[in-house]
Amino acid sequence: MSWQQYVDEHLIKTHCVTMAAICGLDGSIWAKSNGLELSPDEVATLLRSFNKDEVLASNGIRIGGTKYIYLSGDDKLIRGKKDKQGVHIVKTKTAMVLALYAEPILPGQCAVVVENLGDWLIQNNL
To answer: Cα–Cα distance between 7 and 67 in angstroms, integer?
Structure first.
């Protein structure tokens, strides 16, 4: 299965994710949904931000030029929100799975889909 299929079939097709991307831990963008603007600089900044609450709290999370308020995170997870939209990011052994959602999708719905895919990738050493 290609990385694009993971984005399309396991994230977007669930209707619990509005846009998504899978990036390598080297900062390369492996796959992304149509319409998602994501720069290599934004990916690199996100990858450096895991487990850095102070940095995320003061700078927020930037994706496609949009700034999301940092809600919570740890060494493998980052959550953010802006108005009626949000972002959920999971880091695996080799990749970062990034998903955006907007109402009527609830944050928990997006979280379950993204974290399940992240867990599966980790279990399969990806």
So the answer is: 22
Q: Work out whether strand 95-102 and strand 19-24 pair parallel, antiparallel, or are unpaired.
A: antiparallel
Cα atoms in the Cβ-side hemisphere of radius 13 Å centred on 52: 12
Query: Residue 26 in 3-state DSSP?
Result: coil
Q: Element (H or E) spanning 62, and its range? A: strand 61-63
Question: What is the average per-residue pLDDT within 25-54?
Answer: 95
Type of residue numbered 77 = L
Helix (H, G, I), strand (E, B) or coil at 95: strand
Helix (H) or strand (E) holding 114: helix 107-123
Distance between CA atoms of residues 23 and 125, nearest Å: 15
**What are the tokens at 55?**
């940095």
- Residue whose structure tokens are 């809600």: 71
- pLDDT computed for residue 1 by the predictor: 81
